[in-house]
């Protein structure tokens, strides 16, 4: 009889230990930070100079690269990009309205980011059959598995006169940051913010890219 009581007590002890262990694991899992799908800010790139390009061929040519950001292989990212532009066309339904796409670059290879492709087809033509708009991208993508230092660059083709960051002034380079830091704001004293994410210049209009890494 004593042996039966000892055995029953031992089994009850094991059951309690198992239940406590399971409860502990469940609690630890619920308290564990869920980082999957969380984004990590990688960097910002600003291109502000008023620039002219012409490329009526079927070959995509690079306009500019996000120079200060390098991506790693086999990782997921999100790129948010805006660029004001003006394109001269041959009129409605012509092939000269232009196409744009962001690509990864590495080792003399281009990898189009497919959901960043944009074709400037529109019936809203301004004076002189011009298209005036903003190219906007908010694209998630994954880098190739090949180990390399990947850069993002903007490419375009099938366009006549393409002006990027067109500001309709003779100033093509922008202003130093004191242009705004020394400006007067009514009833307030102007102060400068930390320069961590500032660009070196202030522009009438500018193209801007922000890249995030998706933590998996």
How would you explain this protein's 3D organization?
With 216 residues, the protein is α+β, with helices and mostly antiparallel strands. The chain folds into 2 domains: 1-32; 39-214, Jelly Rolls (Sandwich), CATH 2.60.120. It is 16% helix and 40% strand. The protein is built from 2 helices and 12 strands. The protein has helices at 2-31, 178-181; strands at residues 39-47, 51-55, 61-65, 76-88, 97-106, 109-112, 118-119, 130-142, 151-164, 175-176, 201-202, 207-214. It is elongated, with a radius of gyration of 28 Å.
CATH class of the largest domain: Mainly Beta
Q: Main β-sheet, in a few words? A: 10 strands, antiparallel
Q: Provide the structure class.
A: alpha+beta
Span from first to last CA?
A: 57 Å
Compact description:
The protein is of the alpha+beta class and 216 residues long. The protein is 16% helix and 40% strand.
Topology summary:
Blueprint: H1 2-31, E1 39-47, E2 51-55, E3 61-65, E4 76-88, E5 97-106, E6 109-112, E7 118-119, E8 130-142, E9 151-164, E10 175-176, H2 178-181, E11 201-202, E12 207-214
What are the key terms here?
single chain, 216 residues, alpha+beta, Jelly Rolls, 2 domains, ten-stranded antiparallel β-sheet, two-stranded antiparallel sheet, 2 helices, 16% helix
């Amino acid at each position: 009889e004593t042996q039966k009581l000892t055995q029953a007590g031992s089994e009850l002890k094991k059951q309690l230990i198992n239940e406590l262990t399971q409860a502990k694991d469940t609690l630890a899992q619920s308290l564990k930070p869920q980082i999957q799908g969380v984004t990590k800010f990688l960097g910002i790139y600003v291109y502000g100079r008023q620039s002219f390009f012409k490329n009526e061929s079927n070959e995509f040519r690079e306009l500019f690269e996000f120079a200060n950001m390098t991506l790693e292989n086999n990782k997921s990212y999100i790129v948010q990009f805006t660029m004001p532009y003006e394109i001269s066309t041959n009129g409605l339904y012509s092939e000269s309205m232009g196409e744009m796409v962001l690509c990864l670059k590495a080792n003399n290879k281009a990898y189009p980011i497919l959901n960043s492709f944009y074709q400037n087809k529109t019936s809203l033509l301004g004076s002189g059959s011009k298209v005036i708009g903003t190219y906007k991208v908010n694209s998630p993508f994954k880098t190739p598995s090949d180990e390399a230092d990947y850069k993002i660059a903007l490419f375009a083709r099938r366009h006549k006169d393409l002006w990027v960051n067109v500001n309709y002034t003779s100033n093509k380079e922008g202003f130093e940051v004191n242009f705004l830091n020394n400006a007067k704001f009514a009833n307030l004293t102007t102060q400068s913010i930390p320069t961590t994410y500032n660009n070196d210049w202030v522009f009438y209009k500018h193209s801007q890219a922000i890249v995030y890494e998706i933590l998996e």
